[in-house]
Each structure stands twice: as C-alpha cells, then as structure tokens.
Amino acid sequence: MGNIVEIKHLTKNFTDKEKNVKALDDINLEIKEGSFVSIIGGSGCGKSTMLRIIGGLETEYDGEVLVGGENVTAPSRDKGFIFQDHRLLPWLTVKENIRFSLPDSQKKNDELIKEYLSLVGLSNFENAYPKQLSGGMSQRVAIARALANKPKILLLDEPFGALDAITKVNLQEELLKIWKKENITMIIVTHDIDEAVYLGQKVVVMTPRPGRIKDIHTVNLGTVRVRTGELFTAARDEIYKEFFKESELPFSYSI
Amino acid sequence: MEKKKKKGFGYWLLYFALPVIILAVWEGYSFAGKLKPYALPAPEKILKTTVEYIQNGQLFTNIGVSVLLVLEGFFLAFFVAFTVGICVTVFPKFDTFTDLIIQILKPIPPIAWIPLAILWFGIGQDSKIFIIFIGAVFPIFLNTVDGVRNIDKKYFELAKVYEAPKSQLIKKIIIPGALPSIMTGVRLGVGNAWVSVVAAEMIGATKGVGYMLSNGRSLSRPDIVILGMLLVGIFGKLMDDLLRWLRKKLIKWN
Questions:
Q1: Which of A96, A128, A190, B53 would be B59's cystine partner, CB 3.0–4.6 Å?
Q2: Shortest CB distance from A87 goes to which of B158, B176, B254?
Q3: A–B: how many Cβ contacts below 8 A?
Q4: In what order do the strands lie in the sheet with A3-16?
C-alpha cells in the first residue's frame, strides 16, 4: 500500500511577542496507509502542531503536507481528529452529538450512529448527556463520532492524556481492536512511552527547540501485542534511551 | 448531583417572618394612632381597597393591561435583540457597522424616550410598547452577544473538523451555547420591561398599574398607590419565577 501521509520539508514558525519560535524544523515523514504510528516527544517539540497541520487545523506553514495525495488546506471529515478533551457538545445527547458530525446525506441514518456506538461499547448510552458520562466514556463517544464519518485517517492528539491509568489501558486495547477491524490509518501523538510503544508499529521520536524528528523506531511486539514480556521491554528501553542517558535509565525488569 | 432538599416548616417560617413582622409593626403603629392615614393608611385599609378593586374588576383590568403591554414590548424586543445579537456575532462587519450607534443608544434610559415616544406614537398603547421595547432590548442584546462570545472556541474548531455549515453552526453551537446567557438577558429584559411599563403609564394612561399609582396620587389615596406598588412587586416576582422555571426546562444539560 502507498503512503497516505507525505510530509516534505515542513517548517512552522510561531511569533510570540515579536520573538520567532521555530516549532517545526524541516520535517520529512511518510506514513503508510493502514499503519499505526506513534509520535512521541517532550512538551514543546511540536508534535501536536504537526498533527494539527496534518489535520488541517493549522494552515500556515512552509513545505508540503499531503494526505491521500492532496495538499491539506482545511479540516475535513476524511481526517478524523480526536482532541485531548472529548469535545462533545454538552447540550446534545450522545446520539445527537454523533448526528451533528455527519454529512447531510447521513444525518438521518440512525443505524450508522447505533453501529458506531456499539463499536465503542456504548449502545445503551445514546440518549445520555455528556455530563452523565465518565471521561473514558466521553472519549469513546468522540472516537465513535470520528469513525462514523468513515475517515481515511484518524489523528489522535494525546487522546488519553486526561484519563486514569486503568481507563487508559482499556481504551488503548479498544483502539487497537478498532484499528484492526476498521483497517484505518491512525496517528497518535503522546508523551507516554508505554502508550507509544504499545500502539505504534512505528514510533517517531521528536526533540524540541526546534521541533525535529530525531529517530523513527520500528516496534516489533510479535503477532499478539502484550505489554509485558521481553519484546515490549526491549522496545520500550530503546525509546527510553532516546530521552535519558544510560546512567539515568530507570531500573526496569520484566516479570 | 445535588439532592433536592425538601424545605421544612422552619424554612417557611423564616421565609415569611420578615413580611409578617413589618405588617405587625405597621399595624401596631397605626392602631396606636401614630401614623397619619393620608400618608400611610393601616394595612386593613389597603386590604379593603384590594377587595373593592377585585369586586369592581379594576384590579384585573389594570394588571391585565400592563401585563399585555409588557408581553408585547418584550417579544418585540426579544425578536430584535436576538436576531441582531446573533448577526453581530456571526458577521463581524455587521458588528462594526452597528457598534457605535448601539453604544450611544444603550445608556439612554427608557424614560428619556417618553417625550419622543408620545410625539411619534401618541399617548395610546403604541408609545408604551415602544418604551418597554427600549427598556428590554439592550439587556437581551448584550447578554446574547456576550453569551456567543463566551462559547469555548474549541467548539468552533470541532464544527470545522465536521464541516458544519453556518446554519448548523448557529443551530447546534451558537444558540445552545449562548442560551444560559440569553436567559439571563431575558430575565433582565422582562424586569426592565416591567419597570418601563409603570413609568410609561404614570405619564399618560387611563388604565394599568402605572395609572393606579398616578391616579391614587391625584385622589390623595395612598391605599391605591400602595396597592398598585404591591401589584407591580408581586407580578414582577411571579414573572421572574416563571422565567427561572423556563430556564431550568430549556437548559437540561447542566
């Protein structure tokens, strides 16, 4: 399969109080269709900015960004975007939140809404208001909302950053299942090394000031992904080494 | 979620205690002959006048006329304030175009418009509706605009991701997002409308609660004046209660 995302010489400058900050410096990246890619880096490395550019939410940059072979000029339903906050409209029920996102031709398609709510395991909550849902449930609705629009690519901007550890693990599992089932390209931005390694087939490591790609790791967790065991520990250690010197490496072992 | 506590006997005792104390002191002073009846008549005199006004139908006629005027003026104001308020927020150029005139008209109190209103619309109901309109339109307008401007920007970003057209944006994000603030504006607007109707009726009218006040003054009947004032107070409170109830029904998601 070809590349769904192609980034060539992407540079992005922010001007902050007359000071020029280089958020992204000459980024080159290709992402294969159907793959799952993690982008990891400390704060200020431009990882979110890069994702927002791919999603069409930031449109001022130098260089070339192609999604599906076309220049990105605006956000669209093809490029599903999951924000860190679930961003459900508080005044609409779960069902109506999904309906709001759909194109006119699908606005009355209740079956579609039901299908995607059941995909994220929330069939019984279609008439609930967002405030009645937990953080994890809300984020699932946000995922269902994005997927119901049948995007070519799903961009996730620290989607589980605000969730507790256990909910986070559950949602990561579900996201992987959905990825396999829907056969859709996913790019996740995270600052959590475990998350990056567990989810991504590739992990793009970025460094700040200016935002650059330092390295791209291919993760091999075998056919069945597990978060324990030697393969996972080895892959994780490799990423740790990108951020910490050998002497600073936290002591780790696998049970 | 907060549990609804049943209000007990103690609550209601405290709630009505102050009015009862005021009535008792008032009654005591007038019984002792310390109050001049032509300045402040005894409570039972006001009660008698109330019964008389109920029996001859004047109470309901006067209140009815004023309430109808308030409703007419208010709905006109709401329609204009809401429409212009949404337009101002959706079309920045329209905002620039109208801003100065709105800023200058806003501080002029409704009563200042009475002379012009009479010249333009005569002393009939139309001039009063105009005064009420002026009184109600600005709080509704300002709160509508404020409400829209305070909607979290992230929802507009969401609308872009899902390619929502402007009509959807207005229906599903702008109006519901601004609704709490709009309802605050409506409450202030109705309050102002009620204040304006009394002012307008005191100047030139043959019916209405404002007329009761000016009529009572010219007849040297403080009982009629006080009855009129009480009616304004009580109906003002009832309208506000109704709006609070409406707000709860409309804003279910909070």
A1: B53
A2: B158
A3: 51
A4: A19-32, A3-16, A62-67, A70-71
Between CA A211 and CA A25 the distance in angstroms is 6
What is the mean predicted confidence (pLDDT) over A189-199?
Answer: 89
Measured between CB atoms, which of A77, A83, A131 is closest to B163? A77
Nearest CA in chain B to A94: B253
For tokens 């475990």, the residue is A194
Q: Nearest CA to CA, how far is B165 from chain A (Å)?
A: 10
Q: Which of residues 115-174 of B touch A (CB under 8 A)?
A: 154-155, 157-158, 160-164, 168, 172-173
pLDDT digits (tens, 9 = 90+) for A215-250: 888 887 765 677 777 777 878 888 878 777 655 556
pLDDT at B1: 46
Q: Of the candidates B155, B161, B163, which has its C-beta nearest A81's C-beta?
A: B161
Closest Cα in chain A, distance from residue B168 (Å): 8
Domain ranges for chain A: 88-150
Question: Considering CB atoms only, which of B155, B163, B253 is closest to A76?
Answer: B163
Q: Test A87 with B168 for CB contact under 8 angstroms.
A: no
Percentage of chain B lying above the pLDDT 90 cut: 84
Contact A32, A201 (CB under 8 A): no
DSSP SS3 for A93? coil
Tell me which of A233 and B220 has the higher pLDDT.
B220
**In this predicted model, what pLDDT tens digit does every residue of A17-42 receive, in sequence order?**
777 888 888 888 999 998 999 999 88
Q: What's the CATH fold of domain B41-250?
A: MetI-like fold (1.10.3720)
Can you read off the two tokens belonging to residue A121?
Answer: 């395991």
- With CB atoms and an 8 Å threshold, state whether A89 touches B168: no
ipTM for the predicted complex comes to 0.85
Tell me the domain boundaries of chain B. Answer: 41-250
Q: What angle do CA A130, B171, B88 make, to 5 degrees?
A: 120
Report the b/e string of B112-130 with b at 16+ CB within 10 A: ebbeebbeeeeeebebbbb
The dihedral sign for the CA sequence A227, A232, A236, A237: positive
